[in-house]
Design brief:
transmembrane helix, 2 domains, membrane, 467 residues, MdtK-like, cell membrane, MATE family efflux transporter
Amino acid sequence: MTPQAKARPVLTEGPIGKTLFLFSLPILLGNVLQSLNGSINSIWVGKFLGETALAATSNANIILFFLLSLIFGISMAAVILVGQNLGAKKVDEAKRVVGTSTTFFALASIIVGLLGIVFSPHILDLLNTPADARELAIAYTRIIFAGIPFMFGYNLVMAVLRGSGDAKTPFYFLLLSAVFDVALNPLLIAGIGPFPKMGISGSATATFIAQLLSFVLLLIYLYAKKYFLRITKNDLHLLKLDWPLIGLLIRKGLPMGLNMVVVSLSNLVLIHIVNAFGSEASAAFGVANQISSYVQMPAMAIGGAVTSMAAQNIGAGKWDRVSRVTWIGVGFNVALTGSLVAIIHLFNRQALGLFLPLEGKAIDLGVHINNLTLWSFIIFGIFNVVAGVVRSAGAVIVPLVVSSIALLLVRIPFASYFSSHYGFDMIWWSFPISFAIAAGLNVLYYRFGNWRKAHLMDAAKRAKPAQ
């Protein structure tokens, strides 16, 4: 075995609990970092430019979330396919996935970026962007679209690294990007020192520069370290539009991306229902939602980690380890999410007081909402972890259907009907009820479904063109 091969992260051997924890930790820290980065940048925009500019960035971020949802799904499909091939010790096949994905992501990002720059005004009009924020939103959105190639590129490289078992490197360069972004925002917004005063365009330009620098430096680092899945001059023939493989990545990736869209749509409809109870209820829900986004992060990180880990073990045919990965992942979720929920319950009013006045109806409502909903995110974590393992085999439709049933067909009708008949609290009871249904259905599918027969690598092999 070469020194390079020995240095590769291996998820098919060794203690599962320790490996899963150490693999999950950088993903968790990365999720926290991205949320903090967005929050700090919003503070800069609000402080220097006011509420109208903040509304402009909010509208632009809706578009960005939609694009990220779709690209997240396809990059997750690459994670799974790379992981399965490495588990089966098929490095050449993993490189084929990398080469095709690189070409596809490069072309898709350029097309999306150009279309976004040209049609930003029309897209923002479709979102019914407030008239006073429209011009600011256009300026901000066009620069964000210009940075799409670097954002897509970073997401692909991060997916390949995680698929090969490396979660640390993506975190380090995500940290670097966040530092650049947070530091450059006030400098370019306000024109501090030698920097030009660019207003809202400065915020978008800071993000653009941060993404560009971190992406380029990440590539330089990987080639300097001779990362084993890098594309060398001998692999240039892999940089092609392998349409059967691209079709497979899209078929498996879009359902995972649409799952994020389902979650977002469910939250938007829920906001609409809450708004009917007045501005104090809306403010309380908005703040409670911010806190719950952090509570979800351990489950999201563990879900991502078990997907990579299970994919490699499925490729290696180690189904006993896949089962242990699943239930150790569920145990970690219960312990970590449960601990976080307990801490927030102890300091409930203080946590909400970071965003709301310490006295008044809004903070009382926020405390009440957290008391009813936070514990249910332990159940959310169970369905997320189990779904992550199922997806790692390439079975992506059933988890999407389960999420759609739980969040759109159960949660929303329940919250809407029962809140209008029995009061405000019924909205919050829709959380544990919908999460419990999702967890139950996913566990049943895990136990009795045919997800183990998805044969993703076989589908990829059939997609391979004749030599």
